Amino acid sequence: MRTQSGPYHRIESEVIHRLILPEHLGAGSRILDVGSGPGIHALRLARQGHHVALVDLSEKSLTAARRRFDEAGLGGQLLDMQHTSAHDMDIEPGGYDAVLLFGPLYHLLDENEAAECVRRAAAALRPGGHLFAIFLTRTSILRDLLKRGRFDDMRTLLASGYLDHGRYLPLSPASRDDYMPATRTHRLAEAEQLLGAAGLTVVDRHAVEGVAAWMRPYVDEVAADAAAFAELSEVVRATAGLDELIEAGDHFLLTARAGAPSSPARSGSISVAPESWGARPRVDVIGRTRSVVAGAEGQICFAPAATVHHGRRLLAVTVGPATDRVFVPRQLPGRAPEPWYTGGRNRIRIYRSPQAGPVRLDDGHLVPMPGGAIDATGACLVSDGTALRLWFSARAQDGPWQIHQTISRDGGRTWREHTLALAPDPADNSTQGTHVLLPAVLRRRDGWWMWYAGHDGEHRRIHLARSDDGVTWQRHQLALDLGPTGSCDAYAADCPAVTELPDGGLLMVYGAGTSRSLAAAVSDDGLRWHKIGPVLHRGTADAPDTRYAFYPALLPTGHRTAELYYAGEDDTGRWQVMTAGSVDLALLAERPAPLELTAGIDQAVARLRDEVPPPFWEEPDDCHAADHGFRSADGRLKQIRPSSTPVFTAHADNAATVVVKFGRSGTLVEREHSGLQALGRYLPVPATSVHYSGENAALVARHIEGTRLADLASTEPERFREVLVDLTAHLVHCATATLTPHTTAAVDHTRKTPAVAAGWVDDLAQRLRDIDDLPLHLNGTRLESTLGGLIHLARRHLPQPRWLIHNTGDMHLNNVLVTDSNWYVLDGEFAGLHDLDHVVATLLGSVLKHTRLLTGAHAVRRPDGLHLDAGLRGPLGLELLGTSWLLDRFDGLPVDPVRVLAHLLPELYFRLTATAADPTVPAPAAGLAALALATRMTRHADTR
């Protein structure tokens, strides 16, 4: 991208040079400008004292750049010039602090050349250096053609599959003469994947034109004078980082880092290997963003399938009138009677999948029905060379579901005559004797494999058939059976979707009939499957998938990623096809196996639901108080206190004991299980499972006898410190692997939301206003801080998160259980992506609140300030509460000590709002002393 002279083009330079680059460039940086052109950006950077090297394919441009530097008297800051292509440049490895790619990535149409360009650029960076890359948005070409009124070009471009492949080639003579050369555009996800594949971590994203995107005529008119342009620049820079604008304009700029710590490690801190920063964030959270891709009033849309055929993304959807559905009354165990869907008059339609928004249902191509069929569902699309293959299930009036197959040679517009692939098994007592339906087909090295649902008149199970030619099929075996009572698939294992994993194995996502959600299983050979458990739960109340999240489809989008489609049913009975976004297949497949549910566990959960009286289900006023809890007459059921939700131990079969947690809702129970399961690759957690009984869900976990880590601080300080060191090492490992730039859509919260924390800070400001300007003295030493200053700091910095990590959300020391040989993290009720600084603050706050290392405190108001005396228990208390030792454990991560301190103010809210012993000091001495110690723990307590 070359900056031009008009106001609209000059705002690009404002965003780049005044907003983005200054945040990452140190004084006198060595910068490589690839695709430099005549050196406009490089010259501006040289004038700021940086040293630059240029690479460009145009010798004329490099000559012009040399002349500009010489005329400016800055020739000495020109390190090197290479006349070569961006993917052939020969650069000293690790020799640069920054690399600019302001153009090459939308002129390199070949993916291999683009990847090589980024690889060489990344290799040129020193550890911790930054790459700045500009990309053309996918819609930029279309909008420019629209401005020129070239609708024929637009139609031709769309028909070529442009929205999928992103490559523009000049189409008409007019476009060749006055528009632009062949160009490569990117979606944000594609750009991030390109940089990630080179070992870079994307740390920031900006819309280059900000809110002014596509407003060139107006901008050039209203911002012609210097004062107006200055106002425009301020507004554009303020909006350039908004998520909703990243792909809305002409260009977006990604900032990516080559792996390195963000600050020098202090003595005793954990060393974070630079290569750990090179990996892309590996966050195993599925279904965070869900959206409808097919649905309409009065219609049901379900059972999707997806593939890419000749560069076009195709989506098959079962569509039918909602009024033609047929129901029979039915009651399943633990549920109220309900109408049970048995069929309708549905058809399968093939759509060109849109890049945004739902499809238009009337736009799809209808798949012809087999002779005599009145209902169809469950398509599977496979691109096979020039052919598009389709398998689907259909039934005649009062007939069984059978699986049919057909082929299209024109991308799904017309189809050959159908043939029968598979009918129900006529053998007695067959698990697929009533219906066979909902196929998932893969072509593998040894032939064609089909997984499908077989129905025995009561339950559905997943079966396997195989074929040499994809036409003649032989039943092979039962692939996935029902789960035990209480499991997510105890009623049905249904509607499979299967894809290959990077290691050659297979991943299956399927409908779990009891939980009415999606579960997964993995296999090395496609024959023997190991269940992972639920992976996509139903949505919350009023969501499009609050009743069902079912009928999965996986569309591979990369070496290890796939988009997950599925169908959701809302509270009105409306079915719509949805997407849960991108899934990291390998990461999902690595989830540990859930706790195996047994008949004894099922009986124990049933006893708890039947025998525990109502008062013991209520949330206590003080969740930290060890109140008397429920205990059964035979001693096999016992309530665990303290706890904010109903938690029990139960003796199940074979003298095994489990923990049963009913939680505040089924949604939170499911979230806790998935969170702990996903975090199990980074932190020691107990094996868990979700037990379902109708609409009720309970978390079941392996019972572990141990001591809370907080209690060891006063009884076994050496063991406490040993575990704390190991805990922080695991947390750093987890954070390094999952570190993600903050976005409002991505962040999770506990019940202490940012609004609650801000309210507590405001309340403290009122409570402490009489002493907020007094200098603070801690144990005879005056601190730089005042209470008012700390409150101002919290108000200013709490709303400014930058980094998220995968975490339980409540990482305090009472949630770490220590045994003789190990330790375990408990309580993942709010597991998800949490503010990194808040996670660290929660841990530091727990040391202050829960360890009893602060043994006593006294507060006195004197003329020269507020004097606080704090007793610290032994060497451990001095180390943890009197220094930044614990915060230093996180060096190498982008932890902001100021924001950690800001979070500690609301963390100590209840310690600061209890009744004070001294009426002249409007807060308890222990709370004030803890806050003063927090300034030392976060390196904020400059003294004098």
Radius of gyration: 31 Å
Looking at the structure, what is the overall shape? flat
**Major β-sheet strand ordering:** 3-2-1-4-5-9-8
Q: How does the helix and strand content classify structurally?
A: alpha+beta
* Count of helical regions: 24
Largest sheet at a glance? 7 strands, mixed
Q: Kindly state the percentage of residues in helix.
A: 25-40%
Low-pLDDT residue intervals, each spanning 5 or more residues: 260-279
Distance between the first and last residues' Cα: 52 Å
Please state the average pLDDT score: 88
How many strands in all?
Answer: 46
Strand content: 25-35%
Q: How would you describe this structure in keywords?
A:
944 residues; alpha+beta; 7-stranded mixed beta sheet; 5-stranded antiparallel beta sheet; 24 helices; 27% helix
Short description, anyone?
This protein is α+β, with helices and mostly antiparallel strands. It has 24 helices and 46 strands. The two termini are 52 Å apart.
Task: Please tell me about this protein's structure.
- By secondary structure, the chain is α+β, with helices and mostly antiparallel strands.
- About 25% of the residues lie in helices and about 30% in strands.
- It has 24 helices and 46 strands.
- The protein has a seven-stranded mixed beta sheet, with helices on both faces.
- A hairpin with a 5-residue loop joins strand 25 (about 495-500) and strand 26.
- Helix 1 (about 5-25) crosses helix 11 (about 225-240).
- The longest helix is centred in the C-terminal third of the chain and has 22 residues, at about 715-740.
- It is flat.
- It starts with 6 loop residues before the first helix and ends in a 7-residue tail after the last helix.
- About 45% of the residues are buried.
